[in-house]
Specification:
This protein has 423 residues and is an alpha/beta fold. It has 2 domains: 150 residues, Aspartate Aminotransferase, domain 1 (Alpha-Beta Complex); 259 residues, Aspartate Aminotransferase, domain 2. Strand 4 and strand 5 form a beta hairpin. Bound molecules: 4'-deoxy-4'-aminopyridoxal-5'-phosphate. 4'-deoxy-4'-aminopyridoxal-5'-phosphate (PMP) binds next to helix 4. Keywords: Aminotransferase, Transferase.
Length: 423
C-alpha cells in the first residue's frame, strides 16, 4: 500500500470509529468498571455467614467470643489462613475487617514508634521513600501521599518488579524504607512474582536497617484457572537470608467472603508480631471475634477456602473470558492496544498507545462508561506514558460488562486512530 492509500484506509477506519462512537453515546449507557468489588452473586455465596455463629459463642479454646480480649485473633481462624498466607500460625494475627487498615496502621506505628531494627522513628527521619512497582494499586500510593512518603516508581516485569532497579535503589539510599508488593495476581497487571524475585527481595542489602517489604497478598487464593499459581514463601526466604524482620505479610478474606465484613491478617517475624501487638494493645481491647468465629465455622479449613474460591471462580471466569473475547475481537491485530490475560486476581490491564489513556477514559465517561481514572495505577496519579487503563470486570452483570467492554473498544479505536492520523 502507498502512503496515500494507507492514509485513506485510516481515514475510513476513523469515520467508522466516529460513527460507532456516536451510536454508543446515543445509547445513554450508565456503566461502571472502576473498582474491583465482588458482585452481589459473589457475596451471596457467603450468605450463610449471616446465620452464624448460631447458638454458640465459644471458640475451640473455650474463649467467649462475645467478650473483650484475644488480641492475636482466634486460633482456629488463624489456622485456616496460615497455609493460604504462607505464615506459621504462631506468627499470624487475625484482626479487623480490612488489610488496608493494617497497612495504614503499620505505617503509622513505624512513624510514631520504633520498629525492630530501627534506629529512630520514621517521623524523625528527614526523608522517607517507598519503592512503588508500577503499574500498582492506587490505595497504596494514597497511603504514601497521606503520610508524606516519597514514592519512587519501579517498572514491573513479567516476574515482578525490576529487581536490578530495586536492589540499586534500596542499597543506595537510606531514606528508602519500604516497597509495596502485591506478589500474586498483582493489582492491576496480574503478575505473580517469580521465585528469584522473592529470593532477591529477601536477600538484597538495604541502606536502611529498618527496610520493610509490604507484602500485600490480597489475591493469595483468587485463582481463575486450573493451574493455581504458587509463589515462594517470603517469610522463610527473609529468615533464611538473615533478614527475618524484613517483611510484613498482609491478607484478608475481603474477596473471599464479604468485602466489607471479612477478616484481615498480619503475618511476620516474632519480633514484628510482638511490635504490632504492643501497638495494637493501645488502640483496641481485642478484635471482632464473633466475626472470626463465624468465618472459622463457615470456611472450616484450608480446603474449605479453596472450595469456596472455586465457586467464586465459576462466577468470575465468564466475566474475565468476555473481556478477553471482546478485546481480541475488536482490537486484536490493530496495534491500538495490548492487554494482560491474568490467571487470577481482579483486574485486566489495558495498554493503549502512549498519550491516549486519559482521552480514552474521558471519551468513555462521556458515553456513560466510567473507568478508573487514567494515571491511578501510578504514584501521584501520573502515568508518564499516559497508556495504562485498569479494567475491573467483577462487579457489573455479564450483559453490562459486555456492553461496557464493547464501548471501551470503540473509544480505544476512536482515540487511537485519531492519534495515528495526526501523527
Ligand atoms: N490490597 C489490594 C492489592 C487490593 O486490590 C485490595 C482491594 N481492592 C485491598 C488490598 C483491600 O483489602 P481489604 O479489603 O482487606 O482492606
Amino acid at each position: 500500500m502507498t502512503t496515500e492509500q494507507s492514509h485513506d484506509a485510516l481515514e475510513g477506519q476513523f469515520e467508522r470509529a466516529q460513527k460507532d462512537y456516536a451510536d454508543l453515546a446515543a445509547r445513554g449507557l450508565s456503566l461502571d468498571l472502576t473498582r474491583g468489588k465482588p458482585a452481589p452473586e459473589q457475596l451471596d455465596l457467603s450468605e450463610a455467614l449471616l446465620g452464624l455463629p448460631g447458638d454458640t459463642h465459644t471458640a475451640a479454646d473455650g474463649t467467649d467470643v462475645r467478650n473483650y480480649g484475644g488480641l492475636q485473633g482466634l486460633p482456629e481462624l488463624r489456622e485456616i489462613f496460615a497455609g493460604v498466607l504462607q505464615t506459621p500460625v504462631g506468627q499470624l494475627l487475625a484482626l479487623g475487617n480490612s488489610s488496608l487498615e493494617l497497612m495504614h496502621d503499620s505505617i503509622v506505628h513505624a512513624l510514631l514508634g520504633v520498629l525492630p531494627g530501627s534506629e529512630r522513628r520514621w517521623v524523625d527521619e528527614e526523608r522517607i521513600a517507598f519503592l512503588c512497582p508500577v503499574p500498582g494499586y492506587d490505595r497504596h500510593f494514597a497511603l504514601c501521599e497521606r503520610f508524606g512518603i516519597e514514592m519512587i516508581p519501579v517498572a514491573m516485569t513479567p516476574e515482578g518488579p525490576d529487581m536490578d532497579e530495586v536492589e540499586r535503589l534500596a542499597a543506595a539510599d537510606p531514606a528508602v524504607k519500604g516497597i509495596w508488593c502485591v506478589p500474586k495476581y498483582s493489582n492491576p497487571d496480574g503478575v505473580s512474582y517469580s521465585d528469584e524475585t522473592v529470593a532477591r527481595l529477601a536477600a538484597m542489602p538495604t541502606a536502611a536497617p529498618d527496610f520493610r517489604i509490604f507484602w500485600d497478598n490480597a489475591y493469595a487464593a483468587h485463582h481463575l484457572t486450573d493451574e493455581p499459581v504458587e509463589i515462594a514463601d517470603v517469610l522463610a526466604a527473609c529468615a533464611d537470608s538473615g533478614n527475618p524482620d524484613r517483611v510484613f505479610v498482609f491478607g484478608s478474606s475481603s474477596k473471599i467472603t464479604f468485602a466489607g465484613s471479612g477478616v484481615a491478617f498480619f503475618g511476620s517475624s516474632p519480633a514484628n508480631v510482638k511490635w504490632l501487638l504492643a501497638n495494637n494493645s493501645k488502640r483496641s481491647i481485642g478484635p471482632d471475634k464473633v466475626n472470626q468465629l463465624r468465618h472459622a465455622q463457615f470456611l472450616r479449613d484450608e480446603a474449605g477456602v479453596r472450595a469456596h474460591m472455586d465457586r467464586q471462580r465459576d462466577l468470575l471466569r465468564p466475566k474475565f473470558d468476555a473481556v478477553q473475547r471482546i478485546l481480541e475481537a475488536e482490537l486484536g491485530g490493530t496495534g491500538l492496544a495490548t492487554w494482560t490475560e491474568p490467571k487470577g486476581g481482579y483486574f485486566v490491564t489495558l495498554r493503549v498507545q502512549d498519550g491516549c489513556a486519559k482521552e480514552v477514559v474521558r471519551r468513555a465517561s462521556e458515553a456513560g462508561i466510567v473507568l478508573t481514572p487514567a494515571g491511578a495505577t501510578h504514584p501521584y496519579g501520573d502515568d508518564p506514558d499516559d497508556a495504562t487503563i485498569r479494567i475491573a470486570p467483577s462487579y457489573p452483570g455479564q450483559e453490562d460488562l459486555e456492553q461496557a467492554m464493547h464501548g471501551l473498544t470503540v473509544c480505544v479505536r476512536l482515540v487511537g486512530i485519531e492519534k495515528q492520523l495526526k501523527g
